[in-house]
Amino acid sequence: MKTNNPHEKDDSLNSILRAWDIRAPLPPHFREAVWQRIEQDEMKSDVGLRSLFKSWIESVFPRTKIALCYVTVQLLLGMTAGLWLARQQSDRLDAALGSRYVQSIDPFRTADANQ
Predict the structure, then answer these.
(1) What pLDDT is attached to residue 111?
(2) pLDDT over 60 at 115, yes or no
(3) How many folded domains does the chain comprise?
(4) How far, in Å, CA of 113 to CA of 115, rounded?
(5) Using H for helix, E for strand and C for coil, what is the string for 20-74?
(6) What pLDDT, on a 0 to 100 scale, did the predictor assign at position 89?
(7) Largest Cα–Cα distance of the chain, in whole Å?
(8) Which residues contact 23 (CB under 8 A, 6 or more apart)?
(9) What is the span of the domain harbouring residue 103?
(10) Around Cβ 61, how many Cβ atoms within 10 Å?
């Protein structure tokens, strides 16, 4: 007959566990080995930035090839945007330096009249 009361199941389990007697001796240095394993697990559980990034990438991209392609495309886009912005800034700097040069030679002449 099954009982619906979970406390009765717990009581019977507790009585069985209390009656259980272990007579086998523990292996030598058992406690030290247990504490060493606990310390090793704690050291492994310390989350570093690299492992956090790696786990994030693995969760977002379950396939390594897709992740590699994504990162490569992002790097290429970033490099292209950087080169484009650097070229624009270089052109502006060249124009400003040209204007300053013209004004240093002839202070009454503007750079626009030169073109």
Answers:
(1) 53
(2) no
(3) 1
(4) 6
(5) CCCCCCCCCCHHHHHHHHHHHHHHHHCCCHHHHHHHHHHHHCCCHHHHHHHHHHH
(6) 95
(7) 111
(8) none
(9) 31-114
(10) 15
The encoded tokens of residue 73 equal 């495309």
| Residue at 35 is within a domain | yes
Extract the tokens encoding 51.
């492992």
Amino acid identity of residue 96, one-letter, is A
Say if pTM beats, i.e. exceeds, 0.85: no
Distance from C-alpha of 22 to C-alpha of 64, rounded to nearest angstrom: 49
Reduced to 3 states (helix: H, G, I; strand: E, B; else coil), residue 26 is coil
Residue 16 resides in a domain: no
- Residue from 114, 74, 80 nearest 95 by CA: 114
Amino acid at 74: Q
Contacts of 99 (CB under 8 A, 6+ apart): 110, 111
Q: Residue type at 36?
A: Q
Tokens 């052109």 locate to 91
